[in-house]
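Hey Z.,

So I finally got round to the zinc ion thing we talked about over coffee. Here's the setup:
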Amino acid sequence: MAANADAIYRLPNPAEIDRSLTGTDVEKIVAMRKLKKAVERAWNTHTDEVKRAIESDFTGWGQTTTVVQFLASTEPAKGYYYDERRLLVNLIEAIRTRGRKDLTIHPGYAGPRELTAREADNLGAIVTRLKVVVTDIESVNQETRLKNVFGQTKVQDARNTFRAGIDTLEKFAAGKQVRIDMIKKKEVWHSPGSAGATQMTLSSGVLDEVDDSAVIVVAHEMTHIIPGGGATGDKMYSHQAGFKTAGEQLKLVTAAYYEEVVRQILKKEDTPPFIPVDGTSPHVITPTVLEQYKVLATKLVTDAWATVYNIYDKFREAGAFAEPRSKAGLSFRWPAEELAWMKNASRMLGLSIHRRSSLQADDKNPVTPLDMALVEHRIATLSKLMTRIPEVIALPMDVDTFREDKVDGVLRHALVLLNNNRATPGVLTNKNVDKDIDLIHCLAALNDAPGWAGLMPALKAGVPARMAGYGD
Ligand SMILES: [Zn+2]
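And the result:
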């Protein structure tokens, strides 16, 4: 069984495969290879039992090779005549039938939906409960807790963020700016919600009940929507190395710490020992050298993950915009600058968009279902990679002190762990894990949360030098 068995790789809808395999013959072959690679990733996440059942199907279709050999081959399928495209469609169907059923097919350009009446009622009740919690936070009752989590001198700053968050949340709830995610971001992306200046999106199920966990999720998200530069980002999550020892300034602008305070209050937890390492608090512990590397590696992967998350949303919007026109056969052209960011993001992430030379005059949706599935693979892989960093137990050989420029050794170890102890091909790129590391650095450098004002200009401007010549 593959070591990365619980990373979820969804595949393009078989009914839409043809729209992924467009362009000249060469372009179709390139797209076909990328599709095979995507199927291979999904295949690797299944149990031996499921694989054996699908191998048996495959033989039944007259194939003389194994599924693995077929997916690895750049040659057309041999043996009994079978159209390559149809074989892939049948494989996806077999994976859907025998594997993770509801998590096999990527949902395409689906955007979030509006709340049902019941969900809207529940949101109202959650807001009411959260208001009580915020009022408590503003009182002397929770001062010790706030000092512990945010630092002695940051109590009022933290209170201000809670107040601004709940006030903005009330406006969002009244203005129908809270929506429900339709694409299972919680299961596949490890993200129960996301929020920006105009919209908060929650996982389906979050608003089914008015309970502590719903209040905690909404408390996190409400700090992301504060206008006027007050919004938090996701520089750190509570399960990550270094969460309790992060600097005070980072904590003030990171949603997970506000979530933490609300969780402690609702769950009536004793205050765990947060150890602010700057400001007015004494240095109580010094992390080991290995821990410092893990903190930095985790930060890089988290930042990269959030960048791809944002790029995905841009692709989804572009695809959803183009889709009705494409289906209606209406001709249109993307402005050059829009195509520029799509192609550059496609180059970095190994999609098919930059490989289609005809795109400038294309009247088809430039963002195919295959591209959407491939972007999501990078997100799923990065979220899985975060969980492997704690498993790195030794420093790289040539390292005994903490130096930022040596973090790649720890990243490499975590990537190899995720990749069943292989360095080639990579898990994020088709080249190798060293190219994966380059990609992580480039994506992390593009992260300018919480504002994200720099992401699109940077993507339009070009591919980062570190990825130049990658040419996937
Ligand atoms: Zn967040």
